[in-house]
Amino acid sequence: MTSQVSSPAEQADEAVLGEQLGEQRKPAAAKDVRRLDRVIIRFAGDSGDGMQLTGDRFTSETASFGNDLSTLPNFPAEIRAPAGTLPGVSSFQLHFADHDILTPGDAPNVLVAMNPAALRANVGDLPRGAEIIVNTDEFTKRAMQKVGYGASPLEDGSLDGYSLHPVPLTTLTVEALKEFDLSRKEAERSKNMFALGLLSWMYHRPTEGTERFLRTKFAKKPDIAAANIAAFRAGWNFGETTEDFAVSYEVAPAAQAFPVGTYRNISGNLALSYGLIAAGRQADLPLFLGSYPITPASDILHELSRHKNFGVRTFQAEDEIAGIGAALGAAFGGSLAVTTTSGPGVALKSETIGLAVSLELPLLVVDIQRGGPSTGLPTKTEQADLLQAMYGRNGEAPVPVIAPRTPADCFDAALEAARIALTYRTPVFLLSDGYLANGSEPWRIPETDELPDLTTQFAQGPNHTLDDGTEVFWPYKRDPRTLARPWAIPGTPGLEHRIGGIEKQDGTGNISYDPTNHDFMVRTRQAKIDGITVPDLEVDDPHGARTLVLGWGSTYGPITAAVRRLRAAGESIAQAHLRHLNPFPHNLAAVLDGYDKVVIPEMNLGQLATLIRAKYLVDAHSYNQVNGMPFKAEQLATALKEAIDG
What we know:
about 20% strand; six-stranded mixed β-sheet; alpha/beta; about 650 residues; single chain; seven-stranded mixed β-sheet
């Protein structure tokens, strides 16, 4: 995470604080300190227990420490699910290591369970020997019965295969805050900070950033800030002094995992937002977002609304159709236009996307995919909108489609989507998903001279000469290289022109119902998309394998982790990952022809596999999952081993 500069007064306070707490923050000499290369921690509790905040703070400190990391937030769709129930469990998983990692991990080494529901919902994912820290104060008879426990799992022997740490988190938090003028209910809310302090002690995480964060977050409520900091420190001190935690752990920074540069922890939606801002600046165009709030895309609207100083204009519309309509109007007016949504919103926007195809204006359609159909699983991940992005419009309305592979890659994908939209005058689909949107990883902040030049020339004057010598402006006279039509800003003298959804005559833009002209315009729009320049597909095949695993989007991390496992076990397998899904890379046919077997893992029922089979007549094998969660590396490794041996 990027460093933050404190004021001199804050630095002085922190120096004094360091002197006061320096000795107590060091692990006691009597306790064992073990070195690990990686750890997977899952915080789980009721949706009101602050698990997402707890996980986010632990992640931020881990990033500042220099570990490589990957996260998986998982929360209910309801704003406030019934307390203490299985549907109401919210969790945050963090995998951090001293080396390069790619996924949030398959199975947690540590589970922090704030109540019986959190334990029951997550204990099945734990390997034998994992550590479980439970808040014993919540294990009342009623709370346990609510989730189906007939007897206390803390006492009936069902957890004997794990390292169980029963901790009265609520009681300890209330006791730590007894000097504050808080009600018991208010004091109990800080138990997540007590748990965070305890875990920070266990894994030697930095603490200054969290305390600074709490002072900032509750700046208008200094008593609440002080109480949370006190609870956080109490959790740290509890870990150091209690006999139940005889061991703490160290995970060294991942010094060899990152190229030299300045890094910060970043989520997919934040990286995408920054990529859109950078694209607007590199194009020297105002950035306009027309959007309607929808999970899991809303964070992009929230983030972009904070950056008016970079020429960003955000419009929260009354519905999905109005959002994209405003964005398309902004594109007509000369802005880099964006609309953000998820699957159900794409369906509502489809008519206007078709209009954008007919108008041939640059427009970014950002689809943060989620579980469907209909409302489906709003807070869970899926990548099942590929065919909708490809074909979900009436008529022949081809649109480029690209997909980022990791949270940090969302930044580069936004720039690439903008390049295509501006160069070829077309709407472009960017397919992220909930796993990328909410997950996070370290991101190297690029230098400005590393960013692509996206500057675009607007039409300035007439571009065609009639037979009588008159110079006129034709809105559909195309660039012979890109087939893009000119982009003329309304109000430019002499460039009055007509565009719309009714078919236009080639060149002039006059309304045309001529069958031959319509055939020509349809084929030209398709040829424009087919001719988009995209990089060749890179193949990772160090051993001359006979089996290729082909992926797209967020499956990159699990697929790569599975491939690493197989190669470490002596297996030979090749890997390739698609960013450009329409058009496909020009060398894809040759790549596919080079292997006896092609396996395509997807979080859908085989949408990319359908496209590959249809276009290249390759008998691609699908491996599919649609349970709202990302693939596990071990699961994929097993499936790919079967494919190799089959």
